[in-house]
Amino acid sequence: MWALGAYIAKKSGDQEKYISQARNWLDDGGYLEFPKPEVWGKHPAEYCETQWKSTARSWAWSGRWMPHDGPMPGEHGCLMPSRFLPYVEEQRAEAKASRERVAAIQAECRRVPVPSSVASPIYEEDEQDVPF
Question: In a 10 Å sphere around its CB, with 0-12 CB exposed, 13-18 middle and 19+ buried, how is residue 23 labelled?
Answer without folding.
Answer: exposed
